[in-house]
Amino acid sequence: MIDRAYALFEEQQQARGINLDLVKQKLQQLRIETPSWGYGDSGTRFKVYQKNGVPRTPLEKMEDAAQVHALTGLAPSVAIHIPWDKVEDYGKLRSHAESLGLRIGAVNPNLFQDDDYMLGSVTNSDAIIRRKATNHLLECVDIAKETGSRDISLWFADGTNYPGQGHIRKRKAWMYEALEELYKKLIPQMRMLIEYKSFEPAFYHTDLADWGMAYQMAMKLGPQAEVLVDTGHHAQGTNVEHIVAYLIDEKRLGGFHFNARKYADDDLIVGSMNPYELFLIFYQIISASEDQDASIVQTVNNIAYMIDQSHNIEQKIPAMIRSVLNVQTQFAKALLVNHAEVEAAQARNDVLGAEDAVRQAYECDVTPLLHMIREEQHLPLNPMKAYLEGSYDQAIQVRGKGGASW
Amino acid sequence: MIDRAYALFEEQQQARGINLDLVKQKLQQLRIETPSWGYGDSGTRFKVYQKNGVPRTPLEKMEDAAQVHALTGLAPSVAIHIPWDKVEDYGKLRSHAESLGLRIGAVNPNLFQDDDYMLGSVTNSDAIIRRKATNHLLECVDIAKETGSRDISLWFADGTNYPGQGHIRKRKAWMYEALEELYKKLIPQMRMLIEYKSFEPAFYHTDLADWGMAYQMAMKLGPQAEVLVDTGHHAQGTNVEHIVAYLIDEKRLGGFHFNARKYADDDLIVGSMNPYELFLIFYQIISASEDQDASIVQTVNNIAYMIDQSHNIEQKIPAMIRSVLNVQTQFAKALLVNHAEVEAAQARNDVLGAEDAVRQAYECDVTPLLHMIREEQHLPLNPMKAYLEGSYDQAIQVRGKGGASW
Amino acid sequence: MIDRAYALFEEQQQARGINLDLVKQKLQQLRIETPSWGYGDSGTRFKVYQKNGVPRTPLEKMEDAAQVHALTGLAPSVAIHIPWDKVEDYGKLRSHAESLGLRIGAVNPNLFQDDDYMLGSVTNSDAIIRRKATNHLLECVDIAKETGSRDISLWFADGTNYPGQGHIRKRKAWMYEALEELYKKLIPQMRMLIEYKSFEPAFYHTDLADWGMAYQMAMKLGPQAEVLVDTGHHAQGTNVEHIVAYLIDEKRLGGFHFNARKYADDDLIVGSMNPYELFLIFYQIISASEDQDASIVQTVNNIAYMIDQSHNIEQKIPAMIRSVLNVQTQFAKALLVNHAEVEAAQARNDVLGAEDAVRQAYECDVTPLLHMIREEQHLPLNPMKAYLEGSYDQAIQVRGKGGASW
Amino acid sequence: MIDRAYALFEEQQQARGINLDLVKQKLQQLRIETPSWGYGDSGTRFKVYQKNGVPRTPLEKMEDAAQVHALTGLAPSVAIHIPWDKVEDYGKLRSHAESLGLRIGAVNPNLFQDDDYMLGSVTNSDAIIRRKATNHLLECVDIAKETGSRDISLWFADGTNYPGQGHIRKRKAWMYEALEELYKKLIPQMRMLIEYKSFEPAFYHTDLADWGMAYQMAMKLGPQAEVLVDTGHHAQGTNVEHIVAYLIDEKRLGGFHFNARKYADDDLIVGSMNPYELFLIFYQIISASEDQDASIVQTVNNIAYMIDQSHNIEQKIPAMIRSVLNVQTQFAKALLVNHAEVEAAQARNDVLGAEDAVRQAYECDVTPLLHMIREEQHLPLNPMKAYLEGSYDQAIQVRGKGGASW
Question: Where does the Xylose isomerase-like TIM barrel domain lie (chains A, B, C, D) (predicted)?
Answer without folding.
Answer: 90-266
